[in-house]
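TA notes. Do not distribute before section.
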Amino acid sequence: MSTVMTYTNVNGYLIPNLTYKSGEQMEQLGKYGFLRRDYLKNHRNSTYQVMLLQDTIGEHLLEVDKAAREREEVILKQLEEKDPLSDEEKDQMAWIKTFWYWMSKHQRFIQ
């Protein structure tokens, strides 16, 4: 398999026009994938750079995003069993209060 490398001339220097497959995967990322990407960039930059150069970053971020969303579902089910939501039609304010309590609590577990 032969690939053709193209270059861009910048002030007399030939810079390769690099592309990576992870770009398509990055479009599918959710909240937790972006949080992981930001963490790697800011706190584990060398790991981030290696994964970027090896073109494994997209797959890694999708796996992290999927695992976090699955964990989020489990936590919400556990919270619902422990402290069920009241009937929304009977007392909407109590339902909203409980819902936001759940959301704040599960965000702490995930992050």
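Switch to the second chain here.
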Amino acid sequence: MEKKWTMPWEERPEGCQDVMWRYSQNPVIGRYHIPTSNSIFNSAVVPFGEGFAGVFRCDNRAVQMNIFAGFSRDGIHWEIEHEPIRFQPGNTEMIESEYKYDPRVCWIEDRYWITWCNGYYGPTIGIAYTFDFKEFFQCENAFLPFNRNGVLFPEKINGKFAMLSRPSDSGHTPFGDIYISYSPDMKYWGEHRHVMGPTPFPVSAWQCTKIGAGSVPFLTEEGWLMFYHGVITTCNGFRYSMGAAILDKDDPSKVLYRTQPYLLAPAALYELTGDVPNVVFPCAALHDGDRVAVYYGAADTVVGMAFGYLSEIIEFTKKNSVI
């Protein structure tokens, strides 16, 4: 697609030595951004037209979980629809859903694909597509319950659609590995392969309880770069942080590098306090040349943004890797 958009960006603050840094005006989307919302977080953004479009998790004040479309000219100031997305049947008539949350969005070939955690007798991976972020067509769920964190690759791998996911349970899962699955048609999924799991506590404790795919991976000279979340169980509960992994270009089930230190962990007030304290949860990443912008959910309450240079992130991941 011809590039017509300008990626949001802010230079590294003076004196900052971190590989990635927070946007100084975080959070970019507050919890009460639309009239009915209790919280807006764990949301996905893609370039669209001369600006950006997104699918946003907006829990209402009954704490019903649903996803909403939104648009922005600059990727920072957002107009989010006040009503949730109404899906039409896509490759199935079965579009039942008890709840929807934690969406990701991905352009593949001729349309935008949305994945989310879909409530169908437990959490599974919902799939839909749109051409314009006005009409949305829901497809078959990818898997049986229980599964979360479904993240598509932006192009086919060896002629097949590819998706990362994290099999789970019905509650606040105290375990979790990342798997990859393939489909010829976005309806039937198989060839499930293990990608990576939590690290041993003495090796890298921030990701020792469970992990999950975060942003849609994008291809670099080193392989597929993916931001992911890792969780440690502390005496105060789960703590979510963000790392990066580089996967093999032709076989993404092979992890080439993976950050031993985190790239971003809860430290700002809006990450430490909220409906679920101590959470940094990446769901989308934009890149333009050497610049990267990551959108992440903070404390299950608001949306934050962080920046970094692609070359520095790759170098850091390779030099500080644990497989």
